[in-house]
Amino acid sequence: EIVLTQSPGTLSLSPGERATLSCRASQKVNSRYLAWYQQRPGQAPRLLIYGASSRATGIPDRFSGSGSGTDFTLIISRLEPEDSAVYHCHQYSTTPWTFGQGTKVEIK
Amino acid sequence: QVQLVESGGGLVKPGGSLRLSCAASGFTFSDHYMAWIRQRPGKGLDYVSHIGSGGASIYNADSVKGRFTISRDNAKNSLSLQMDGLRVEDTAIYYCARLALGDNGYHYFFMDVWGKGTTVTVSS
Description:
Number of helices of chain A: 0
Distance between the termini of chain B: 40 Å
Order of helices and strands of chain A: EEEEEEEEEE
Radius of gyration of chain B: 14 Å
Number of strands of chain B: 11
Oligomer: heterodimer
Number of strands of chain A: 10
């Protein structure tokens, strides 16, 4: 099983700042089959990024994904208040499909 | 608009059964693989089960094998999850999700549409 470890656990930043979230896999994620989801408090997850770097429909270009192999990154370039959420990474390269434990982004 | 609406959650005793349903609308349901994802209280996400567009291809996580059964009715745009032998550790919000379909017809195993979820509580 591919274990995804996200860091940091919590990120506390001010509006306009840049957030860098990491997702590290215990084994290589083939074909860059890695996705990121945003989950606002009390809501269902929402797809942000797939294929490690492709933005989903309607996602602002403030969100960008990068990485390959075992190291992946989600960057939110200019934080806005509505970006307060938990961000989950997900590998769909190898069964069982797995998720990271999440990174909470707090807006000061 | 594209929408998934879950129902059927509730409180059940250990060893009991529950059937979750998901009503899909706004897209061609029969084109897509569909999945159930759960989130235990205060925890991350767990991939539970998925079913192919025609119903023939099924995947179940080890934690639910032999206890949960996923099914679909393409004529009714409906997805179901029959949960038997429920355990306390099955307590979670259960999300119905659509798996992505590429322009080339390739089925990807990431979720591009999610329902709001239904809560299952297993407790004596």
